[in-house]
Amino acid sequence: MSSPWTVTAADSPLVTFSRQERLHEAAIGDRTDLRSGAVQTGVRRLVRESWQRSISLRLDPLTAQAAPTLSADELGRLRARNPLAAVLPVINTLLVRHAAEFGLIVAVADEAGRLLWIDGDSAVRTLAEDMHFVVGADWSEARVGTSAPGTALALDHGIQIQRAEHFNQLAHPFSCTAVPIHDPVSGMVLGVIDITGGDAAVAPQTLPLVEAAVAALEAELRIQSLSAPRPAPARPSGFTAPGLLLSVLGTEHGALHGSHGGEHSVEKDSVDKHSVDLSPRHAEIVLLLTWHRQGLSADRLAGLLSDEQPHAVENLRAEMVRLRRVLAVSHPQLRVGSRPYRLETSVDTDAARVLRLLARGAHRMALAAYRGTVLPGSTSPGVAEIRAEVSGRLRQTLLSDASVEVLLDYARTEEAAWDSEVWRACLELLPARSPQRAAVAARLARIETELRA
């Protein structure tokens, strides 16, 4: 089953281009109803819906809409304050060096779709200037219509757009793949990474490659956020409460990452991002309250923390007093309400992010973000339920939908190292002549031998 986010691999590039040109002319050139049967059968749904949004914005598909709108000073300021500036060397290592070899260019845009950096094949960069794909140009969907960078930002998902799928006819000589990149602490979109060029830009391996690069970039940003302060990303008007993230994957204690400075701190200089380790019990409590947003009664929370502990509710109340004291010092903006116990400040978790990535179909990114089971040392029944939900969803989703490359990466993790079903699925998915089949078959044989012993 083909993915809705990628181009159709069954058609040759020339056949696809010829058909898409005719459909583009019929659906956009004459502004016909995009719900018509001819358009439905020939155009991917996400492209058709993007065309419809572009038409509703009264964009002109015949002219360049992306003329540079930023002055040199404005571009310099945007570059200086964008967190992606700190990972440009990583982008160069993972993408730019290889893109140039295949006649491709790599573009980095901010969260508004403005192109901040472009590098890669010089000849393709020159050709792309004809459609105003240049530094300083606005390539948001609201400005140019359907394109990989703009539509990826609009949908918050990695996508591929092939030649005549672009709304703007000036972009029809090009194909592109783009993946949004998120702040690993706040979860906010920082921008988008785009690969543009010929048909190699939408090859089957290109989207997984860019997704893997984005996962590496987000990991690097997390490391930088924990080791040194960096500028906070732009926030929507009216945002006041700094974002908080609870890390519980692969750690016994758990840690709370976020901003120190009260809930009304909005100036960048007044916010000091930091990380504080929590005790195992406090990590369990905060996790359970993030998972049960509606709140939990004292009896229910005590039950989720321990099966048969004497004086469970009294012990919980004493622990809540200690937790509030810790938070008052480390994260005063995070408040715990009572009757029922509930978090009065939004807190995200790395476990929930893995589930969201799985739901979006970003399997490689989800696996990269999964650093181990939820609070592996915890014996609390409520935590055990969350642990089983996250690890079970990851395993089942990868078994059902992931590519063989991602499934192999999962099989090599500690969690799946002895999972015969996972290794058997890898063997079934590998091509008959794959050099990896022998190693996978040997591993599967060893697992089955151990199980029989």
Gross geometry: globular
Encode the helix/strand succession as letters: HHHHHEEHHHEEEHEEEHHHEEEHHHHHH
Largest sheet geometry: 5 strands, antiparallel
| Beta strand % | 5-15%
- For the largest sheet, list the strands in their spatial order: 2-1-5-4-3
Protein described:
The protein is of the alpha+beta class and about 450 residues long. It folds into 2 domains: about 15-225, GAF domain (Beta-Lactamase, 2-Layer Sandwich), CATH 3.30.450; about 240-395, Arc Repressor Mutant, subunit A. The chain has helices spanning about 15-30, 35-40, 45-55, 70-80, 90-100, 120-130, 140-145, 150-155, 205-225, 280-290, 300-305, 310-330, 350-360, 365-370, 380-400, 405-410, 420-430, 435-450; strands at about 105-110, 115-120, 160, 175-180, 190-195, 245, 255-260, 270-275, 335, 340-345, 350. Strands 2-1-5-4-3 form a 5-stranded antiparallel β-sheet, with helices on both faces. It has a 4-stranded mixed β-sheet with strand order 8-7-6-11. Strands 9-10 form a two-stranded antiparallel ribbon. A hairpin with a 4-residue loop joins β1 (about 105-110) and β2. It is globular. About 40% of the residues are buried.
